[in-house]
Amino acid sequence: MGNCCDFFNRQKNTNVRVSLPAVCFVWQIAMIVLFGVFIRYDEESDTHWEEYRIAHNLSSDIENDFYFRYPSFQDVHVMIFVGFGFLMTFLRRYSFGGVGFNFLIAAFGLQWALLMQGWFHSLNLETGKITIGVESLINADFCCAGSLIAYGALLGKVSPVQLMVVTLFGVTLFAVEEYIILSLLHCRDAGGSMVIHAFGGYYGLAISWVLYRPNLHLSKRLSASVYHSDVFAMIGTLFLWMFWPSFNSAITDHGDGQHRAAINTYLALASCVLTSVAISSMFQNRGKLDMVHIQNATLAGGVAMGTAAEFLITPYGSLIVGFCCGIISTFGYVRVTPFLEKYLKLQDTCGVHNLHAVPGMLGGFIGAIVAAAASEEVYGREGLISVFDFEGDFADRTPGTQGGFQAAGTCVAIAFGLVGGAIVGFILRFPIWGDPADDNCYDDEVYWEVPEEEETIPPILEYNNHMIHKHQDISESNFSVEQS
User: Fold this and answer.
1) DSSP reduced 3-state for 193
2) Alpha-helical segments (H) within 250-398
3) d(CA 357, CA 240)
4) Distance CA 24, CA 21 (A)
5) 204 or 458, higher pLDDT
6) Are 272 and 305 in contact (CB under 8 A)?
7) Of 128, 269, 345, 481, which one has the greatest count of Cβ atoms within 10 A?
8) Which residue intervals of 194-226 are DSSP H helices?
9) 462 bridge partner residues
């Protein structure tokens, strides 16, 4: 037993000169081969579109799905690469790693997602081919989001090779749980409260728990933010906040469902901002605001609205969801995160427990309640069939039964995240991945060429009181000339 512990606790070697290029080259070549074997254009992106259009009595090219879905795809794509990336730049010395590794794993993840989701959802058993179109690209971005959320819990503590492994298994687990929840259980989850946020959040938390670092306090000097890093992170927040209505409505049915999903998300996000600010002010000395809360908790309303976004939750119901989630998420950052780290040994760098895991779980159960309360009097017969897809094998399902399956789907997402994350965490404990030592975390210099800091030149004129506090080594009075 002692030998096993010694094996896992061997001295860290962060040299990834061989392992990182090997993983990137081999896995990308594997993608090329697999795409060549399996991936083809669908009927709306193939050169036979004209024949397809005439056969299906479509009046013009404007009815191609590209023109309906591409604006939403653009918004979701920006969220994945810019929103998530910049949100992770809050650490004072880990901005390169935050946005750069986000870029890396999203670029790999979307390729693997097209294959994994294709095998489960769009594989033609006769030809053995997977067809992709613009909606496939949106779903692939959604699939990547789960792994990017998990990265938030691990930020600054893992190597790029470990992140590629996290993404490989994360996308695979996502495709399986998504198939179970959406196809076998026939749940509705347009914005991914269950399949994206609950899964991704608990997946990252489980990995972080297994990879617990007892001496992480040795890197505490770098685990905080500085003024400019918080500003950059706030850019990510604003991109995510603005485009979240597109995220939740991107793959809903054209027409009223997509329209309703955007409205409900828009309102939940707005309500969430006010309560996040209120709770942040209540818990800080003299009512000052904490930028961590504003960067993160203000997005929780969009997370929680993911499942119920296309349902008739009503506009005031959306405001209530945002109102409650702003309180719960901010309270989580103030009280729950320190508790989890102290007593459960759970080190959550970005607080994904408060932004994704808990709001995603709540969103799943909110969707279950709203689905169970649906009725033909409120939705209309055709509306009920359209919203919950009560057709084919599910034509006889009642709203009450649908609500039960929605709740079960939430539990499946959480279970996949926790169990899958624990297994992946154990794999990542092997000392072969080039991860940093406990006293070398949260630092870009471990994996990046970092420019030298510019020499700090004291100001010639000191004329503001706050400048004196900033430069305490200068003892002259205000508006004094520096002596050479």
Assistant:
1) helix
2) 256-283, 291-296, 300-304, 315-331, 337-343, 352, 358-372, 376-379, 381-388
3) 17
4) 5
5) 204
6) no
7) 269
8) 199-210
9) 480
